[in-house]
Amino acid sequence: MASIVSRGNKYAVVFREGEGEAKRQVWKSGLSLSEAETLKKSKDEIEKQQRERERKKKLKAAYVSDVTVEDFLADFVKSYGIKHWGNSYYESNLALLDNYINPYFGHNRLVEVDTKLIDDYYNFLLTECEPVHIPGKPKREHMTASQVNDIHKVLRTAFNQAKRWKKIKENPFVDADVPEHKAKERPAFSPEEFERCLHIRTHQTTTNGMLSMWRFASNTTVRQEEVKLGLYSGPTIIATLKRFTFIRQ
Fold it and tell me: What structural domains and CATH numbers belong to the chain?
């Protein structure tokens, strides 16, 4: 910043002029105090603008990258998804990447993705994109708001990680216009209702092992892998009395 130096009854302003390596120190002498203060203020503003330009130039250089969204997401899944996603959620997210994200969005460069591009992408999903048909489920003409929200969750998490890795400055998905979706609450079976279902199945083709697995999962709310571990690590006897489950191995 510029400084004022007193020289008898006159004043001088010392400031730096030029940019980069061409900067040099300059003295402006023979000024009154008011003239010196005005000049100092002017030079301070010029230097402030120069610093801002240099900061933006360095910032732009730091975030220039040719990596595409698809390439980044592949790295993201390997380093983040494997550690933080369960098996079913992992498979579900891979399906979203393969069917909806990479084919339509993956070719964009990571640093070029902005909120307007994201909004256009979500509008495309809702109005033009044909959903992949899953056997056993109704065929739909367009993506649902729920599916777009699922895609948004994956991409927002991924771009948060990109920001953390210093690949982008800001996460553009934070301000994206996501379609509204309210998940419907699915009432759970009461223990009595669940036992009635098991009773019906016992008169069909269900084995005792399957009944034990269903009863164990319902009363303990454990995951699929934990059910297998609990039931198949040795002989297991499961008995349900009112709201209590007794397990003996």
Answer: 3-62 (no CATH), 69-175 (1.10.150), 191-248 (no CATH)
